[in-house]
Amino acid sequence: MRILHHLPLSPYARKVRLALAEKRIPFELRVERVWDRRPEFLDMNPACTVPVLIEETGLAIADSYAICEYLDEAYPDITLFGRTLAERAEVRRLVSWFDDKFNTEVTRNLYYEKQMKRLLGRGNPDSGVIRAGYANLRPHLEYLGWLAETRAWLAGPQVSLADFAAAAHLSALDYIGDVDWSTNESAKEWYARMKSRPAFRPLLADRVSGVTPPPHYADPDF
Ligand SMILES: N[C@@H](CCC(=O)N[C@@H](CS)C(=O)NCC(=O)O)C(=O)O
């Protein structure tokens, strides 16, 4: 069976879980405590990050973007990137927006600072960093809301990896209670549409010991 090594709240693993499910590719999840630095895992991915996909052939692929491009090339029937060159360029731009810019300005300051830093042995959360994360989240939600208002899906006419990347980050932050959806109605409406997709259900069922999500986390009509 195909295996995805992951952590339940990792936005990068969540993006790949959504991509696999939307492409209807079966897989099993294995939790990888990256902070244990398991030698067998380091052999698969010297960066010691999740996600890592292990194909049935034994092929190991690390890095969420490498995995998603591989999946689209290996299983092209349902595309993650859109059909036209312009659509595909826009999907790539927005995946980078969420995985690089949003991650640096928001996810790292909230999810990493609060959840991962201590586990990785890199010190205690810094309240200034967390405050900056909240301040940055607001304009990012506005941009997302603007995209959702002006297009059917974030990158264009069809749902794509741009939506999965954005939803992966926001769902991890929503689990830890850090998203105030009342600040942007269009962003909230887009997230409700994402939550009601069958591929999203396993993410809404995730539970992490010691962290209880807010009641609206798993509710598609929040
Ligand atoms: N560029 C990588 C980033 C993956 C990543 O940073 N994963 C985090 C969890 S969200 C991780 O495993 N961190 C462990 C560490 O930084 O040592 C990808 O897209 O897969």
From TrEMBL:
Recorded coiled-coil stretches: none
Q: Which Pfam families match?
A: GST_N_2 (PF13409)
Q: Which GO terms describe its molecular function?
A: glutathione transferase activity
List this protein's GO terms for biological process: glutathione metabolic process
- Span of the signal peptide: none
Instruction: Tell me where in this chain the GST N-terminal domain is found.
Output: 1-79
UniProt domain GST C-terminal: residue ranges: 84-214
Sorted alphabetically, which PROSITE patterns does this protein's record hold?
GST_CTER, GST_NTER
Quaternary data: Homodimer.
Protein's name according to its UniProt entry:
Glutathione S-transferase family protein
Q: What species does this protein belong to?
A: Siccirubricoccus deserti
Highest classification ranks of the organism = Bacteria, Pseudomonadati, Pseudomonadota, Alphaproteobacteria, Acetobacterales
